[in-house]
From TrEMBL:
Record keywords, A-Z: Lipid droplet
PANTHER family linked to this entry: PERILIPIN, PERILIPIN-2
Signal peptide: none
Top-level taxonomic group: Eukaryota
Family that this chain belongs to: Belongs to the perilipin family.
The keyword Transferase appears for this protein: no
Coiled coil: none
Protein name, entry field: Perilipin 2
GO cellular component: cytosol; lipid droplet
InterPro entries to which the protein is assigned, alphabetical: Perilipin (IPR004279)
The keyword Transcription regulation appears for this protein: no
Subcellular location per the Swiss-Prot or TrEMBL entry: Lipid droplet
GO BP annotations, alphabetical order: lipid storage; positive regulation of triglyceride storage
Organism: Papio anubis
Amino acid sequence: MASVAVDPQPSVVTRVINLPLVSSTYDLMSSAYLSTKDQYPYLKSVCEMAEKGVKTITSVAMTSALPIIQKLEPQIAVANIYACKGLDRIEERLPILNQPSTQVSLGQKC
């Protein structure tokens, strides 16, 4: 009997990152950040040092956490399923999440 490959459910993190509102807002902020760095050389050097520090810390943290993550993989998979179900409900209730930030209008309250 032939086995059927089942695609694993995407992680909730991947789903959130791919929401049009989130990804377009990230793109806008990233562009503003890069533009600011290009305009101000002193700020650029400070930002680059901070970026290097964050990359180093992240690398060390991932290396240290990897054994724990591997051990907890089954629990993480279950948590991901519940988080995805919750995200499904949020997306139903907040259709704004499926619009790019350029199309979102935040009304002013007086």
